């Protein structure tokens, strides 16, 4: 009985709970409802960006009927005009004009200069090689063969024009390897009438053949240049150490001589009628470059000359390549010629370029007839910058040229102060004493031709 009641108790409990849940309460006895929690309002949407209004349509182009001659190119701004000071682009190089021809930038050209006429009336034409660079720069003139038997300069000028690349060059090279074609064709220093061309510059259109050739060359070539190097050698069986001769009393010429590397520089005012003297007086700073001896090609001297000109091109800002020299550039101001006091056979004991002490033996003059020897000694401490080859000599023959070394500043100071070298010698004067009408009357040479370029 008790066990039955314990089994029925859970069932009754469930029945009673279901009845209570289903009871319908009156409205006033409804159980309290939970308070509603207010919800946050949704944020207002962000305003959409407005698109910019489209630009107004351009007015229609009014194209006049073609052709219209009054319509030209647009106005050129100063910044884009190469001729304007406000131009901001790279500098443009115009063509180089000479001898009625034009050479474009970055190009080389072989032109012709009509020097004169031959005996048969034909034209005597010398080559003029122009190398015109892509970059602006000075105009350098290189001349050789003013004396027809001086060959080293001819080869130096030829090599320079072949080695220089116009596309890498700044400025212009005007090269004339043979000025005196008459003398070159005869292996002679002189013109056919025995005149020395290097005594007649700037020349005259109405003078002798020497004066007319000098005038033509000066007007048609030299006046187009900014500076000039005239190549020469020793003369009459004499040889010169590579050396630059210049009038150091002129500031522009002084500065010009600094560009030749380790090349001897000798102060020499020059004489009237020389190419370098006439060119300098006309505003073209000029020097004479002596290198070696006449009548032959000397490889060592030629190589020195080529290296010196490449160094000069770098100094002038025309080339980016700078050759390397093993020693600084020396300057010589005073020089002395040692002469033979007797005739005989000259035998040298020194070599060209050798440094000597005062009283040092330079050579001997041997008289084979009377079996006598006479010594020639150096009067100064210096260097042999010129000397004669071993040969038969007469009394008074200039055998050795000895230069006394000095500093560049001292040499220029003495030159500017008017202290000129010792009076030069007067042998080997031009053989012609007659002057054609129109020639400038030239005094006898105040120095040897081998010493006076």
TrEMBL record:
Segments of skewed composition (Pro residues): 44-65
Protein name: Succinylglutamate desuccinylase/Aspartoacylase catalytic domain-containing protein
Keyword Acetylation listed: no
InterPro entries: AstE_AspA_cat (IPR055438), N-alpha-Ac-DABA_deacetylase (IPR053138)
Record flagged with keyword Cell membrane: no
MF GO annotations: hydrolase activity, acting on ester bonds; metal ion binding
SUPFAM superfamilies registered for this protein in UniProt: Zn-dependent exopeptidases
Record domain Succinylglutamate desuccinylase/Aspartoacylase catalytic: where: 136-314
Annotated source species: Chiayiivirga flava
Region of interest called Disordered, as start-end residue ranges on this chain: 24-65, 408-453
Cofactor: Zn(2+)
Signal peptide stretch: 1-21
Assigned keywords, A-Z: Hydrolase, Metal-binding, Signal, Zinc
């Amino acid at each position: 009985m008790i066990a039955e009641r314990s089994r029925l108790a859970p069932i009754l409990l469930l029945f009673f709970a279901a009845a209570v849940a289903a009871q319908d309460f009156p409205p006033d006895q409804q159980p309290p409802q939970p308070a509603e929690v207010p919800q946050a309002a949704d944020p207002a949407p962000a305003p959409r960006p407005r698109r910019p209004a489209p630009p107004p349509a351009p007015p229609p182009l009014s194209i006049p009927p073609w052709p219209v001659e009054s319509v030209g190119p647009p106005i050129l701004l100063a910044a884009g005009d190469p001729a304007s000071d406000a131009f901001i682009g790279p500098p443009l190089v115009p063509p180089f004009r000479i001898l009625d021809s034009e050479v474009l930038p970055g190009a080389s050209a072989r032109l012709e200069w009509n020097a004169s006429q031959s005996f048969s009336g034909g034209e005597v034409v010398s080559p003029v090689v122009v190398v015109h660079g892509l970059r602006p720069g000075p105009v350098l003139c290189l001349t050789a063969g003013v004396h027809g038997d001086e060959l080293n300069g001819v080869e130096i000028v030829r090599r320079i024009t072949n080695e220089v690349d116009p596309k890498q060059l700044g400025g212009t090279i005007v090269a004339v390897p043979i000025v005196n074609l008459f003398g070159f064709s005869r292996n002679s220093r002189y013109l056919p009438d025995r005149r020395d061309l290097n005594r007649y510059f700037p020349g005259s259109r109405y003078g002798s053949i020497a004066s007319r050739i000098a005038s033509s060359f000066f007007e048609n070539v030299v006046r187009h240049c900014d500076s000039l190097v005239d190549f020469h050698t020793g003369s009459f069986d004499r040889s010169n150490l590579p050396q630059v001769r210049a009038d150091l009393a002129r500031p522009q010429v002084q500065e010009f001589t600094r560009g030749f590397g380790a090349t001897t520089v000798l102060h020499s005012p020059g004489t009237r009628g020389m190419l370098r003297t006439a060119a300098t007086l006309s505003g073209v700073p000029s020097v004479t470059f002596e290198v070696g001896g006449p009548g032959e090609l000397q490889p060592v001297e030629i190589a020195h000359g080529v290296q010196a000109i490449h160094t000069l091109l770098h100094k002038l800002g025309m080339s980016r390549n700078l050759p390397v020299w093993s020693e600084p550039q020396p300057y010589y101001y005073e020089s002395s010629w040692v002469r033979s006091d007797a005739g005989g056979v000259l035998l040298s004991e020194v070599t060209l370029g050798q440094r000597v002490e005062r009283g040092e033996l330079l050579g001997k003059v041997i008289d084979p007839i009377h079996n006598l020897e006479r010594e020639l000694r150096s009067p100064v401490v210096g260097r042999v910058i010129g000397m004669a080859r071993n040969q038969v000599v007469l009394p008074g023959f200039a055998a050795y040229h000895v230069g006394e070394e000095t500093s560049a500043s001292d040499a220029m100071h003495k030159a500017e102060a008017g202290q000129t070298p010792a009076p030069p010698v007067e042998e080997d004067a031009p053989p012609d004493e007659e002057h054609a009408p129109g020639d400038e009357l030239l005094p006898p040479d105040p120095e040897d031709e081998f010493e006076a370029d």
